[in-house]
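Field log, afternoon session.

UNIT: design team B
ACTIVITY: writing a sequence onto a fixed backbone
BACKBONE:
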C-alpha cells in the first residue's frame, strides 16, 4: 500500500512539475526536473541550449525519459511495483495473482534488461545535478550558501548514492570475472559498492522523495511564495 501511494504520488507530482513549464529556476537554483535545460525556452543559461527553439510543451519533457527510464527499469523498483501493483507475486511463497504471468521472459517486460544502458546515462545526469549543486553556491557572482544550495547538494548526494548502489554498477565493477581475487582493484571497488548496494532500496526512496522536495522548494521560491534565506560572502 505504501509503495502504491508513494509511486502514484510521485507520478502525479512529476506530471505536474514537468508540464507546468514555469517557476523551475530562481537564480542560482534549477529544479532537477528541468536539468539539463536544453532549449531556448529555458530561463537559465547553465547548459547549452542545443535544441534551439524546438518548443515542446515544456523543456522537462525532452529529458525526463532518461532518469525515468533508469528508475522504471531499476531492479529494486521492479520488485516493488511488480508486487504492489500487479501482485506478481504479492509476497514470498504466495502465488502470482495472474496465472498466465510469464515474468520477464517475454515482450514487453524483457525490455527491462535495458537497465544496464540506462545506468550509463544516469551517470551523466548525476554529474549534471552535481554541477547544478555547485552553481547553487554562486549568488550574484559571489560565493554564497542558501537553503536552496543545501537542498541541491543533498539532492546530488542522494542521486550519486542511488546511482552508485545500482546493481548494474556493481556488476560492471566486479562482474564478468572468473576469479575476482585476480583483479584486486576491481575487487576493492566491488566490495565498497556492495556496501552501498545493500542499501539501494533506501537510496531509491530517499532520492525519489528528495527530487520532489527540491523541485517544490525551487517552485516556492521562483513563484514568490517564500524567499530563499541565504548568506553571501
Ligand atoms: S538496480 Fe536500481 S538503479 Fe540499477
Amino acid at each position: 500500500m505504501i509503495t502504491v501511494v508513494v509511486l502514484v504520488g510521485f507520478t502525479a507530482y512529476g506530471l505536474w512539475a514537468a508540464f507546468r513549464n514555469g517557476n523551475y529556476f530562481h537564480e542560482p537554483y534549477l529544479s532537477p526536473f528541468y536539468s539539463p535545460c536544453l532549449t531556448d525556452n529555458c530561463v537559465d543559461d547553465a547548459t547549452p541550449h542545443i535544441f534551439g527553439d524546438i518548443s515542446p510543451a515544456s523543456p522537462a519533457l525532452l529529458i525526463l525519459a532518461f532518469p525515468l527510464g533508469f528508475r522504471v527499469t531499476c531492479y529494486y523498483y521492479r520488485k516493488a511495483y511488480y508486487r504492489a501493483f500487479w501482485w506478481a507475486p504479492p509476497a514470498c511463497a504466495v502465488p502470482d495473482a495472474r496465472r498466465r504471468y510469464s515474468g520477464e521472459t517475454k515482450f514487453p517486460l524483457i525490455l527491462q534488461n535495458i537497465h544496464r544502458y540506462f545506468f550509463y546515462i544516469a551517470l551523466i545526469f548525476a554529474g549534471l545535478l552535481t554541477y547544478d549543486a555547485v552553481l547553487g553556491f554562486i549568488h550574484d557572482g559571489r560565493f554564497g550558501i542558501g537553503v536552496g544550495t543545501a537542498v541541491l547538494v543533498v539532492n546530488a548526494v542522494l542521486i550519486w548514492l542511488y546511482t552508485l548502489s545500482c546493481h548494474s554498477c556493481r556488476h560492471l565493477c566486479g562482474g564478468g570475472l572468473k576469479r575476482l581475487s585476480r583483479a584486486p582493484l576491481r575487487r576493492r571497488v566491488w566490495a565498497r559498492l556492495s556496501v552501498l548496494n545493500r542499501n539501494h532500496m533506501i537510496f531509491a526512496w530517499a532520492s525519489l522523495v528528495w527530487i520532489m522536495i527540491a523541485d517544490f522548494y525551487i517552485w516556492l521560491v521562483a513563484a514568490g511564495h517564500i524567499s530563499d534565506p541565504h548568506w553571501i560572502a
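LOG NOTE: The CA atoms of residues 153 and 160 lie 11 Å apart.
NEXT ACTIVITY: expression trials, pending approval
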